[in-house]
Amino acid sequence: MAGKKFSSQAAVLETGPESTGGRFPENLENALRPQRLEDFVGQAALKDNLAIYIEAAKKRKEALDHCLLYAPPGLGKTTLAHILAREMGVNIRVTSGPILTKLGDLAGILTTLEEGDILFIDEVHRLNHAIEEALYPVMEDFTFYIHTGGAQAGAIGSAQLKLSIPKFTLAAATTRAGLLTGPLRDRFGIIGHLNFYEVAEMGRIVMRSAGILQMAVEEGAARLIAARSRQTPRVANRILRRVRDYASVLNEGRVTPSLVDEALRRMEIDEAGLDPMDRRFLLSIIQSYDGGPVGIETLAATLQEESDTIADIYEPYLIQAGFLSRTSKGRIATDRAYEHFKLIRKPGKKAEPTLI
Predict the structure, then answer these.
(1) DSSP codes, 169-224
(2) Where in the chain is the domain with CATH 3.40.50.300?
(3) Which of 25, 179, 198, 356 is least enclosed by beta carbons within 10 angstroms?
């Protein structure tokens, strides 16, 4: 199956980066992704469990059980899905919830699957109701039902065809596990959560990526990037690529702590890893709403951002880092947020515990 190519509007087949023969990689995003479970930094408990599940499935010569991965953006859900395919020695077909709008889209993908293949659906919480219900018998019995006759199911003149699907693995990723329906969530035999990374782990990720990018990075410079990367590998790799630009232009390619500090200053990333949007978000709560509580829809209107963008992109790290509390009454800036901006909370206002 290696080298096979498949593409459609709803899915694309990927078999992993091909060897570059020592040349500089053309697709940096894919080149920076770990290719094997042993190369994946962090998430030790999840990796150990996945290694057991993979080895057990291979010993039984079965497809891996359906797998759901949930975490904030950039922590490695897509990378792990590709690693599962490589470790199992199968192809992976990639699509996303918003793309699968019609049953024909799903049928087109399912009919191309081979025994043991992995179908990866990103943003699975955004599947429409019809697609989700059609997946239930596919996940349980590997059977896809097709209604023909140009009428709705059960109507006069309609017919139902039953299509057998090779046993495959549905790997799905979401940033909003709470939005998944119970029937869909319960059909996943493997459920894994990815946590934010420790600074030491981030440093290892930076050094690994620097090696792939053929960069000479001093250890102190790597630590500096790691400390300001929001505990998120995707952010670290993005910063590293921009630091490479600054080093190439300003410092003959050498990446030193002073060069990194200058690059981050120009990119407006502060010592806590907050970017301009993070600061604007927190300062809006502090200055416009006396530190909160304030509802997310009100904040979205103030910031002119979608509420889903705020909840998925900005809030997880700010909560993790202790700058924000999410309560039943709304969002509240914590004491750490006030200290970061060197501001004083008004008398009588107190941060409430984060709602779990």
Answers:
(1) EEEEEES-GGGS-HHHHTT-SEEEEPPPPPHHHHHHHHHHHHHHTT-EE-HHHHHH
(2) 12-193
(3) 356
78 is catalytic: yes
**In the annotation, is 234 catalytic?**
yes
- Can you tell me the distance from the alpha carbon of 41 to that of 199, in angstroms, rounded to the nearest whole number? 12
**Which residues lie closer than 8 Å to 180 by C-beta, 6 or more apart?**
68, 124, 125, 174
Q: Which of 33, 79, 93, 122 is catalytic?
A: 122
| 95: annotated active-site residue | no
What class is the 199-266 domain? mainly alpha
Among 93, 230, 234, 326, the active-site one is: 234
d(Cα 14, Cα 12) in Å, to the nearest integer? Answer: 6
Please answer whether residues 63 and 57 qualify as being in contact, where contact means their C-beta atoms are separated by less than 8 angstroms: yes
Q: Which of 169, 174, 175, 232 is the catalytic position?
A: 175
Tell the CATH superfamily of the 12-193 domain. P-loop containing nucleotide triphosphate hydrolases (3.40.50.300)
Query: For the chain, where do the domains classified as CATH 1.10.8.60 start and end?
Result: 199-266
| Active-site residue flag, 175 | yes
In this structure, which topology does domain 276-340 adopt according to CATH?
Arc Repressor Mutant, subunit A (1.10.10)
Q: Is 270 a catalytic residue?
A: no
The answer to whether the predicted template modeling score (pTM) of the entire model surpasses 0.90 is no
Q: What is the pLDDT along the chain (356 residues), one digit of tens a residue?
A: 444 433 344 555 554 434 344 455 556 778 899 999 999 999 999 999 999 999 999 999 999 999 999 999 999 999 999 999 999 999 999 999 999 999 989 999 999 999 999 999 999 999 999 999 999 999 999 999 887 655 455 555 567 788 999 999 999 999 999 999 999 999 999 999 999 999 999 999 999 999 999 999 999 999 999 999 999 999 999 999 999 999 999 998 899 999 999 999 999 999 999 999 999 999 999 999 999 999 999 999 999 999 999 999 999 999 999 999 999 899 999 999 999 999 998 876 665 555 54
